[in-house]
């Protein structure tokens, strides 16, 4: 994927350069290193955790083997946490890591997902459980929680503590979860799909309402919302509201029209730091489409009556709501935008960026340098000859604040720390780490950090 992306991105840059226009640096879609789909955001301890599916490169179907996780404190710079759960987590499942949702209760994180039950060949809902939002998640039950061949679980915990699991395509089901979150009371029940509740669809006798799949159920100011993928195909995002968790539902209209080169869409909504955010997916990356999707986000405000305004896909994305501190250690895989970069598991258990070639870069947005940085350090490894990290401001070709030389270290996971002097990095800046060197893969980066004060040369382990 990175090669296709790099070629298409460099073609776009060349075309823009030819007409004398600098490329606008968009921050949607959120992830550029792989294709992601089916966003499910969760706010926890001052961060937004964004759980996604992973569309395999070149897919011609929903070929999805694992889920991925990203998190952000500012809605713009997203840290890659890798894959905390996959189809292999569920010994009874064979394939299809499709759209799920994570909820937090009793100090645990429960991840409800649809996967194919190998024994029956049908879609079933499994539950992963973890002690932290980043996992690792394990199979909570060793078997499906519920199975009826339908998909896309969403879980909502009401103020009285009663939790509900909703899911379904073509039907919309619910069941009351017990407080352990891994068992239920009563049986799976269909929510009546009436045109008053879910809008009228024409041209499909089997599906008289707009409801298609992907419910996202929550409560705000006493009103219950069900935001869902409507009509097929292409899908748009619509919503219904109700006075209670089980209805009666009233269709309220379009949240996001069909746009963006993917015939599916999938909604996830959270409030964070005083703002409301709508997550969705499209096919906006080069090479993107209906089976190679990308997760994106828009900020929005509810209307005074609680209705959701119509939201349009943008390339700009959500505004940054906090600056990033360069004087604390930052993971190299904290990214607002990147070109040619991939991520992988690092030997310390976290992630590193890798497969870096000459000219690849990472943008980190809104970096608060204050009165000025004087040095930069990075944890690097290289089984090749290394290269250089250029620290540039404002754009990949902007002011050069410093250059760190990266040596070969004898292995892609043989880590050492390099440092170099920095000048002219003051105030709030978009920082670009641009990787340069010879041909082939250059080096990996695990983390980086700036310092103020006198520069002391440092190369070695710490
Ligand atoms: O990603 C696979 C399926 O496509 C999801 O389960 C649906 O919601 C649709 O996005």
Automatic annotation (TrEMBL):
Keyword Zinc-finger: no
Signal sequence coordinates: 1-26
Coiled-coil features, chain-numbered ranges: none
Domain of life from the UniProt record: Bacteria
Keyword list, A-Z: Carbohydrate metabolism, Glycosidase, Hydrolase, Polysaccharide degradation, Signal, Xylan degradation
Keyword Ligase in annotation: no
Domain spans labelled CBM6: 328-451
Pfam families hit by this protein: CBM_6, Glyco_hydro_43
GO molecular function: hydrolase activity
Entry similarity comment: Belongs to the glycosyl hydrolase 43 family.
Record-linked PANTHER family: ENDO-1,4-BETA-XYLANASE, PUTATIVE (AFU_ORTHOLOGUE AFUA_2G04480)-RELATED
Full protein name: Glycoside hydrolase
């Amino acid at each position: 994927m990175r090669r296709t992306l790099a070629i298409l991105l460099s073609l776009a840059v060349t075309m823009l350069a030819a007409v004398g226009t600098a490329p606008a640096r968009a921050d949607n879609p959120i992830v550029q290193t792989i294709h992601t789909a089916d966003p499910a955001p969760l706010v926890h301890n001052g961060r937004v955790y964004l759980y996604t599916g992973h569309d395999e490169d070149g897919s011609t179907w929903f070929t999805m083997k694992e889920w991925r996780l990203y998190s952000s404190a500012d809605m713009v710079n997203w840290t890659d946490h890798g894959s905390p759960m996959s189809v292999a987590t569920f010994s009874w499942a064979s394939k299809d890591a499709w759209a799920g949702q994570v909820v937090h209760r009793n100090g645990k994180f429960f991840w409800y997902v649809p996967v194919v039950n190998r024994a029956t060949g049908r879609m079933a809902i499994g539950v992963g459980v973890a002690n932290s939002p980043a996992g690792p998640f394990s199979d909570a039950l060793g078997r499906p929680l519920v199975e009826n061949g339908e998909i896309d679980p969403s879980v909502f915990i009401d103020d009285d503590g009663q939790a509900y699991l909703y899911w379904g395509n073509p039907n919309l089901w619910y069941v009351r979860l017990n407080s352990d979150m891994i068992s239920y009371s009563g049986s799976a029940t269909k929510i009546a799909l009436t045109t008053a509740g879910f809008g009228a669809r024409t041209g499909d006798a089997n599906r008289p309402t707009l409801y298609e799949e992907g419910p996202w159920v929550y409560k705000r100011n006493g009103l219950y919302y069900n935001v869902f993928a409507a009509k097929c195909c292409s899908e748009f995002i619509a919503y219904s509201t109700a006075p209670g968790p089980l209805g009666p539902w009233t269709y309220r209209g379009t949240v996001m029209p069909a746009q963006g080169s993917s015939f599916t869409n999938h909604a996830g909504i959270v409030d964070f730091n005083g703002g409301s955010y709508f997550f969705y997916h499209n096919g906006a990356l080069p090479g993107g489409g209906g089976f190679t999707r990308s997760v994106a986000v828009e900020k929005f405000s509810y209307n005074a009556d609680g209705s959701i305004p119509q939201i349009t896909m943008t390339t700009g994305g959500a505004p940054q709501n906090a600056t990033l501190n360069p004087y604390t250690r930052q993971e190299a895989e904290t990214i607002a935008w990147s070109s040619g970069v991939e991520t992988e598991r690092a030997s310390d258990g976290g992630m590193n960026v890798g497969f870096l070639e000459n000219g690849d870069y990472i943008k980190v947005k809104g970096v608060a340098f204050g009165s000025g940085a004087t040095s930069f350090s990075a944890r690097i490894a290289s089984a090749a000859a290394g290269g250089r990290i250029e620290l540039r401001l404002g754009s990949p070709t902007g002011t050069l604040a410093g250059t760190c030389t990266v040596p070969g270290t004898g292995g892609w996971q043989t880590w050492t720390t390099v440092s170099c002097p920095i000048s002219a990095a003051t105030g709030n800046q978009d920082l670009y780490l641009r990787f340069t060197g010879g041909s082939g893969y250059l080096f990996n980066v695990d983390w980086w950090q700036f310092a103020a004060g006198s520069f002391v040369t440092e190369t070695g382990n710490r």
